[in-house]
Model the fold of this input.
Amino acid sequence: MSTLPPVRIGLLGLGTVGGGTLTVLRRNAALIAARAGRRIEVVCASARDLNRPRAIDTAGIDLYADPRQVVDDPRIDVLVELIGGIEPARELVLRALANGKHVVTANKALIALHGNEIFEAARARGLVVAFEAAVAGGIPVIKVMREALAGNDIQWLAGIINGTCNFILSAMSDAGSDFGEVLAEAQRLGYAEADPSFDIDGIDAAHKLTILASLAFGIPLQFDRVHVEGIRNISADDVTYADRLGYRIKHLGIARQQERGIELRVHPTLVPARAPLANVNGVMNAVMVNADAAGPVVLFGAGAGALPTASSVVADLVDVVRALTTDSENRVPHLAFQPDTMDQPPILPIGETETAYYLRLLAADEPGVLADVTRILADSGISIEAIMQLEQDADSASVPVVILTHKVQEKAMNAATARIEALSSIRAPLNRIRVENLA
Ligand code: HSE
Done:
């Protein structure tokens, strides 16, 4: 073991992940030092409320109420940012870099929105910003995409990257319950936040997809170009009908290279029940990467939680310790590609993406209605793969009809949908969910 002094850490945030990081650093101190070649010591930390009772022992750590005191503490080599959100995290990370400190962060929003600026500031000073914990908690997906798949042309990736959505959709499927009931249960169990909109409206998944797409394709981080949909419109009926057709509904982040550009989208998706991602349930996360040489690679694990996220933070710390003695030009680039080779292919507008569709309509139970619907689809060049008419509701004159289509460009489906919804025999709006075979 090296005789060098320990690497000294300043920690911003002593919440769930901060506490988990202290636990892992202590519990596995000898193992971590044996791997890193030096001991890692937390010398100071900040927390919003220093008087709050904590499960974790902070003896020997200087505690500050003002995070700037951590960032400016001359003893530290590395800042670990675990406060989340954009400000003051952005300001503090940039200040740490200006002070010559390496940074480890679990902050997906910060990286997705300001990563280009932050990485440039780090590169200009020969510093590392590591962010494994920002995507899919304990799953080492950044490391795999940036290093282990470095020899591959990545064609697409698809991920279950929000545990809250996956918990809700899995529970709807298991219990046949409605979205609202399951969300209330998830909040009661502490899986969903009191304001769950970041998760269930897809923003959190879009932050993570932005980062993964950049690593996969060598493109700048472009959060504002991601098409984002959440899961509020998925009904218990959709889950049941999808099941009858041999599909599960999952909330996916998808990034795909097409000839004309790149698709970046987050939305609920029907996936075949036998597909690996269909069988990832509860709060678990998984990312499937389709790479030309490796073929399909699936990474599965805990997407959140104190210790899984701490596992990624500590792995980053070990990488930073090793990087302290390497030439900054010869490190793994922040976004997998050397910055001067990054490309800016067009991001396709959602209307130009191509997927198959699940359509659920409520039709009047009278002759010719289905013929009208199928004629509109045929006129629009949309081919039908399956059609299923379901039992009529006792208290309604309408009959649910479910149609699975072959692949179609989204703008053609938009036009066909408008024509179908204009039929007097159809109750608007119809429900539409994209279908991906992930093959
Ligand atoms: N809120 C996230 C989720 C976990 O539900 O997956 C942290 O990224």
Observations:
- The radius of gyration is 24 Å.
- The longest strand covers residues 247-258.
- The chain has 14 helices and 17 strands.
